[in-house]
Structure formats: C-alpha cells, structure tokens
Amino acid sequence: MPHAAGRIDATRAVVFAPLDGAGRAELVEQRLTDAIVSGVLHDGERLPSESDLSSRLGVALVTARDALETLRDKGLVTTRRGRDGGSFVTFDSEAATRLLARRLRDRSRIQLRDLALHVAAIAGTAAETAAGRASDDDVANLERIAGSADLETAGGARRAVGRFQLEIAAISQSPRLVREEIRLQSEAGPLLWMCLRDQEHRDRSALARTRVIHAVRRNESDAARAATIAHIDGAFEWLIDERARIEAREDEASAVSVREET
Questions:
Q1: Residues 157, 1: contact at Cβ < 8 Å?
Q2: Packing angle between helix 154-171 and helix 136-147, nearest 10 degrees?
Q3: Which tens digits make up the pLDDT trace of 42-101?
Q4: Residue 182 and residue 240: Cα distance in Å, rounded?
Q5: What share of the chain is helix, strand, coil (3-state, %, to 5)?
Q6: Closest CA to 147 of 40, 155, 139
Q7: Smaller CB count within 10 Å for the chain: N or C?
Q8: Neighbours of 190 (CB within 10 A)
Q9: What phi, psi does 46 have (nearest 5°)?
C-alpha cells in the first residue's frame, strides 16, 4: 500500500474523511464540532465551501448546509459574504472546555474503558504490524513527524498524535486499519486526548512516540504494540480522574447553591 496517504496532513484526512451511517447532518455537525473544540481546526480558519464540504464528506449539499447552520447557531462558525467570504471557525476555548467536560461527565467508566479498549486495539495492532513492515524511509518519516510536533498547545499535541498514529497505520499497509484509525480519530480523539491540555501529558505523549519509533526501527512488534497501548491507557486513566474532578466540582457547586438558598 502506498504510504503517501499517511504523509498528507493527517488532521485534514480525519476531519474531512467521508462519513458513514444515517443522521448525516448530525454526523457532519459532530465531526466539525469535535475538530474545533479539540483545536484541530483553528480560530479564524476558513472551512471548505458548502459544495466542497458535501463532496469531501460524501453527503448531500443540503446536509452540509444544515450542519453549518447549526454550527453558526452554536457560535462555532461565522459566515461572511463577498469575494473574501466563506465560513470561518470561531473558537472559544472556554466554551470548548465546557462542551468536552459535559461529554466526559455523561460517559460512564465502562463506556470510557470500552472506548479506550477499541482505540488501543486498532492503534496497537497497527503499531505491531508496522514494526514488521517498516522500511528505513518509513522510520525516517516517523522521526520527522515526531520532531516537528507542536507541544506548546493542546491542539498542536492532538494534531501530533493524530498524524503519528495515522502514519503508523499507513506503514502497516492495511487499508482497513487506516480507515478505522481515521474514523476513531474523528469520533473518539477529542475526548480521549483531553489529557493533552496538561504539559505533563504532552511530554509523555512525545516520549511514547519515541518508544514506538525505537521499537519499529528494531522490528520489535510486541514492544511497539505495548508502547502504543500504554500511551492510550495513560489517557484513559486521566479521563477517569478528570471525570471524578468534574463531579466533585459540580457537587460542591450544588452544595453552595443549597446553602445560599437556605
């Protein structure tokens, strides 16, 4: 399988990959919302036109139009007319944080664990397979991706994770793994990688990539898989702790409200 697919901008491959399933307007809205709140799409960034968006996502023009209208209502997109017009991202970091916090709070521990297991199964298998198939050029490209990672912001770190894992899937030479990696990045990535808002976890993420590259270079399939899964498990553990912190804050706020009312 040619590896070029893994060397394009992986974040754009994820955000604008074709959609599957029913309820298309809702799926388009969710896909773009996740990309905005996770920092993959930047504040002020111009989105594809309605016709281009519908073509890329494989949906009807009216579906893309309805999704953009909903995003405008949510304050995540603004549309300007004229020669330099179009639809532009309006990123509010505080609103994005609240949105992800609500999504995390609404997931049970079992649901979060199932999510992490699914992501780990795909990414771990891709890393294991890539370690047995990677060429010297593949390893060099992984090193370039890791070396160019932006670890200054959560969005930059999230893009680094996505690009690296998509390249690993491409090196595995499995079209199915590539497609599933793209799907999971868009559907699970924004929630799973919330931990990257902390510099400590951005540093851990960079270290995990170094370990995977080392294993791939030495054709150590088990080590590549283990390093990948450990990275995802760390993100899962952070999610569980963060969910508990959110619940504690909400309980405290509720208690304060009751005291004030009485």
A1: no
A2: 170
A3: 888 999 999 999 999 989 999 999 999 999 888 889 988 877 789 999 877 777 778 888
A4: 24
A5: 75, 5, 20
A6: 139
A7: C
A8: 23
A9: -80, 130
